[in-house]
Amino acid sequence: MNIVVCVKYVPDAQADRSFTADNTTDRASVDGLLSELDEYAVEEALVIADANDGEVTVLTMGPEDAATAIKKSLQMGAHKGVHILDDAIAGSDSVATSLILSSAIRKIGDVDLVLTGLGSTDGGMSVVPAMLAERLGLPQVTFASEVTVADGSVTIRRDGDAAAETIRASLPAVVSVTDQINEPRYPSFKGIMAAKKKPVDTWSLADIEVEASQVGLDAAWSTVVNVEQRPPRSQGTIVTDEGNGGAELADYLAAGKFI
Amino acid sequence: MSEVLVLVDHVDGAVRKTTSEMLTAAARLGEPAAVFVGAGLDAARETLAAYGATKIYVVDSSDVTDYLVAPTAEVLASLCEKVSPAAVLLPSTTTGKEIAGRLAIKTSAGVVTDAIDIEPVDGGIQSKQSVFAGNYTVTAKIVKGAPIITVKPNSIAPLESAATPTEETVEVSVSDAAKASSIVSTEPKAASGRPSLTEAAIVVSGGRGTGGDFGPVEGFADALGAAVGASRAAVDAGWYPHSSQVGQTGVSVSPQLYVAAGISGAIQHRAGMQTSKAIVAINKDEEAPIFEMVDFGVVGDLFTVLPAATAKINES
Ligand SMILES: Cc1cc2nc3c(=O)[nH]c(=O)nc-3n(C[C@H](O)[C@H](O)[C@H](O)COP(=O)(O)OP(=O)(O)OC[C@H]3O[C@@H](n4cnc5c(N)ncnc54)[C@H](O)[C@@H]3O)c2cc1C
Ligand SMILES: Cc1cc2nc3c(=O)[nH]c(=O)nc-3n(C[C@H](O)[C@H](O)[C@H](O)COP(=O)(O)OP(=O)(O)OC[C@H]3O[C@@H](n4cnc5c(N)ncnc54)[C@H](O)[C@@H]3O)c2cc1C
Description:
Chain A is of the alpha/beta class. Chain A contains 6 helices and 13 strands.
């Protein structure tokens, strides 16, 4: 069974993330890493591959440093990596991202399962998996908190706010997983050593037959016209409870007409 | 004026508040036209009319409702082709965003998710999003196709504006490909009797500091008519259901008032509540990061502060 996991390289959410002069994410001044939410997809891929004699390919689109996202995935146990690297990609929107990833998945070929995280930790739109399914003509089974692969089909549990649903599709399919699904493993020493010998292909846009004019900032179907830092919330009143903290809280709520 | 399609957010005809917010935003851009998918229109009609829907497209076919996401995207794509709308608005739910994603590819249009405001501008439509855990507000313009925008609940104040909608049943022919992921079974969530987290004007959340006893949090919430939320630490411990988790990997809320009790204020939690109008925290530790962003904070034990506040509110 051939499994592709899409992993994104993102600026560290704990750092001071910001934007560059052209209103795109500043991916240079903040350290990047494998999006934490994609670790769940890598873990699930490894579990499914173990049970089904599968091979796991991790796929990323991003700047040179995005290779660290592949490296971490390989250390966890993925078998090989594909990095889509091309200067023309910078500033791509979700539509272009899905075009590039779907073209790469086609080139990888013969894929039974495409796994993704539930959303990136930077853009966080949670639209790329559905877009991949649309472009590849595959069913989507998304926001899975449980995944079972058996007899050529995949069944998931999807926890919505109004109901929990069980959803099934035949393979190949695009599956996104939530952070409820598993506990991602830490790379072992053996895993770290083994990763050094695992193959990573770096492909340009030409390699996956995508025109540079279809992607990047200038081709984006949505453009950011303004970026404003939210004025820091000024700290309000802080009281220390010395017996009447509860009453003071009630008074604050009454003054604010919340009660 | 062009139509603006609004995908109605409802559960068996019980219309969610986001729908009236989307209809209000739609009226700024053109003629609000509701797209109602599923059963229960009789229960929904009045609300749709009250918030200005001039038309209701009715799609009631098991070919759409028994499958995940793709058929609804096909229905909307065919409506887009027919009426060339000025924009398509959808709720910022997991499903709403996924329909938006598929629709964007089908109609070759740009997409923006989690919009907190929408307005017409010269030659197009502009929307605002709150990004990077609420630290930045981004204004974006969609420059290709009929903009597809998902609207974050509780962001746009709904305005009543009575209309008399005409109704049109949409004939659907859903492709086999779109029926590839089928919904095998559905277990509805038990109703808590409290308002829903994304719609509530007030949300009271509990964290690890509750030690698993949500009693004081729930009592305080009920005194305020509030919804109850939880931090991931509380959810991971099994104290509260995941559907109540507020934050990056849970729901994102924007109430008038957010109360965090026994929650430290990690960035992933803030990502889901920082756009709240007012923020209150109760925490034992005066150094807790949550206090950096509060309008009012009490340094104290939630097990004494919340019951005292609840008693005083219930007295008045
Ligand atoms: C603050 C901000 C606002 C933005 N606003 C918009 C907007 O309004 N409209 C728009 O079209 N674009 C927007 N973008 C751009 C968009 O986020 C990126 O194009 C991104 O590559 C795709 O969307 P996402 O990160 O939201 O992915 P999501 O849809 O949240 O990602 C889901 C999953 O897809 C996979 N994935 C996503 N990106 C990659 C990748 N590069 N390589 C490998 N796997 C990947 C991962 O498995 C991930 O878990 C915005 C970006 C930022 C940082
Ligand atoms: C990828 C990723 C996604 C995440 N997504 C989310 C998310 O969606 N939502 C989320 O919430 N978290 C999320 N987290 C987890 C987040 O980083 C924090 O671990 C979590 O928010 C901590 O929850 P807490 O504040 O309840 O617990 P803690 O950080 O342990 O804080 C407990 C607080 O309670 C106080 N306290 C203790 N006892 C009392 C008492 N008796 N009275 C008053 N105060 C008391 C303590 O002083 C402390 O400040 C995510 C993490 C990752 C890595």
